[in-house]
Write a structure and sequence with these properties.
Blueprint lengths: L2 E5 L8 E5 L12 H12 L10 E4 L1 H5 L8 E5 L7 H15 L6 E5 L8 H15 L21 E5 L4 H25 L7 H15 L2 E5 L1 H7 L2 H7 L7 E7 L7 E6 L1 E5 L19 H16 L5 E11 L10 E4 L5 E4 L6 H16 L3 E6 L4 H6 L4 E5 L2 H14 L3 E3 L4 H4 L9 E2 L7 H10 L7 E5 L22 H9 L3
Parallel strand pairs: 1-6, 2-4, 2-5, 5-6, 9-11, 9-14, 10-11, 13-17, 14-18, 15-16
Antiparallel strand pairs: 3-4, 7-8, 8-11, 12-13, 15-18
């Protein structure tokens, strides 16, 4: 993983990065005389205007004739618009991508001049963008691709004053980015290397490292508790289900935020089998669980002062084995509610229902948030650009929307009203798990709402954003790690 640090003495070296805004009139410029000269030459030829996402690489020795000093200079455009935290992340992602195309192992990054943002804010967002933009998953590649340079860059130094505020901001940025990296690593693991048991193992490792309490419910405990959803979904698999629980406690009187993440480590659809095309992507169906687990690592490191945080990750596989759930089967969830399973491919809501009902009864949270790759319907409605958000509480919904916007992980609220509940009426059980395709994302949330009661609750459907997310310089192809920074931002700003 890329290492990012602060330096107050930015000595010349292998690579120096500058960020330059696009002026409304005239050509882009930089306070550094040599760099300004290089930018002027590129601007004169029309090759560089400093628009967002644009960059240009120089070799100063070719201009000055001197070998000493900066070997390479990279200038990244910031665009015309007012600079935001998200623009800084994107610019950092562009920078680290361009550096990765060279043989540079170290780089110095200068903070943008006259950005309107304070140094701590700049440092935090640069750290996030640099680390996230450098992410690669090559764990199972044994042969080096001859067409790739391979990751050479190991360290980036941010040229900034080493004040307490800047150091704290750096720590926040690194912590958030490392949590997202952890989530991406988990999601990238193939189904045969990441099972429900792996969730429990990773949680124990994290808990030991950052001082959290961890407990794991296995199949025998679930049977005693009557968790028919998790048990039912797992019936067709040889892999036993797990319900992993992580707890961060600061005070008995402090409010508790409950996080629940869907941990379907592979989803074939069960008896209601999915089409074979693209089924390999169903290893990503545990992205919500990965986001929650990674967020807890960050929480354990930062230790918020006025909020307890409890995370539940119900994990299972959904396979069409000889004992698998069949369409039309009836199961009983934790708490006694019965469900007719009309479609076994609507399994995420079944495992989440048990976790939500159990977590709310046991921990009595002030609020609960679940995050899941729940419905393909959300992709039809929102594409891969925004996460679907549904909630039974306006204040909580507003908090989540604000957190997502600040994190660069935008959400869009969908309606949730009593008329949708009518579509889930069953003739043989308390409710059924699906109806027609109409309003599929809303129906998924309406089902979950049956298990949260009056507790303030928000549901994040990340099926469209957990992978193939809107192309960004700091989000690679494949898993995005979406939700980690939204949850962390929400926790950091909880009131």
């Amino acid at each position: 993983m890329l290492k990012v640090r602060i330096t107050e003495k930015a000595a010349a070296g292998e690579m120096t990065v500058y960020f330059v805004g696009q002026p409304a009139k005239g050509k882009p410029s930089c306070p550094e005389p040599l760099v300004n000269e290089l930018i002027a030459r590129a601007a004169m030829s029309g090759d560089f205007t400093a628009k967002e996402g644009q960059s240009v690489l120089f070799y100063p020795a070719a201009v000055t004739g001197k070998r000493a000093g900066q070997q390479r200079v990279l200038v990244v455009g910031l665009g015309k618009e007012k600079l935001t935290a998200e623009a800084i992340r994107k610019a950092a992602g562009v920078a680290v991508t361009q550096i990765g195309r060279t043989r540079a192992k170290e780089a110095v990054v200068r903070l943008p001049e006259k950005s309107g943002l304070a140094a701590p804010e700049l440092v935090e967002r640069l750290a996030e963008g640099l680390i996230l933009g450098s992410y690669r998953f090559r764990k199972y590649q044994t042969v080096k691709d001859p067409e790739e340079n391979g990751p050479q860059l190991a360290t980036v130094a941010l040229a900034a004053p080493a004040t307490k505020a800047v150091q704290a901001a750096m720590a926040r940025g690194v912590n958030a980015a490392e949590a997202v990296t952890l989530a991406r690593d988990m999601i990238n693991e193939p189904g045969n290397h990441w099972t429900p048991t792996h969730f429990a193992r990773e949680a124990k490792k994290i808990a030991h490292g950052v001082g959290l309490k961890v407990s794991v419910l296995g199949k025998p405990e679930m049977q005693k508790l009557g968790m028919g959803g998790i048990l039912g979904v797992s019936q067709g698999s040889a892999q036993p289900p797990t319900l992993t629980i992580l707890e961060y406690r600061v005070a008995k009187k402090a409010p508790t935020l409950l996080l629940v993440g869907k941990g379907l480590t592979f989803d074939s659809g069960g008896i209601s089998l999915k089409p074979s095309a693209g089924m390999e992507e169903m290893k990503y169906d545990m992205s919500g669980g990965a986001a929650v687990l990674a967020a807890m690592q960050a929480v354990g490191r930062e230790k918020p002062a006025k909020l307890n945080v409890v995370a539940l990750i119900p994990a299972s596989e959904n396979l069409p084995g000889p004992t698998a759930l069949k369409p039309g089967d009836v199961i009983t969830h934790y708490g006694g509610k019965s469900v007719e399973v009309v479609n076994t491919d609507a399994e995420g809501r079944l495992i989440l229902a048990d976790a939500l009902a159990y977590g709310i009864e046991k921990y009595k949270p002030a609020a609960v948030i679940d995050i899941a790759t729940l419905t393909g319907a959300v992709i039809i409605g929102l594409g891969h650009h925004r996460t679907g958000l549904l909630a039974n509480d306006d204040k909580l919904c507003d908090k989540v929307l604000a957190a997502g916007e600040a994190a660069g992980e935008p959400l869009w609220r969908l309606p949730l009203a009593p008329e949708y509940r009518k579509q889930l009426k069953s003739t043989v059980a308390d409710l059924k798990n699906v109806d027609k395709r109409d309003g599929g994302t809303i129906l998924g949330a309406a089902f979950l709402q049956e298990f949260v009661g009056k507790t303030p609750w928000a549901h994040l459907d990340i099926a469209g954003t957990a992978w193939n997310f809107t192309e960004k310089s700091y989000v690679p192809k494949g898993p995005s790690g979406i939700g980690v920074r939204t949850l962390l931002t929400l926790i950091r700003n909880w009131k």
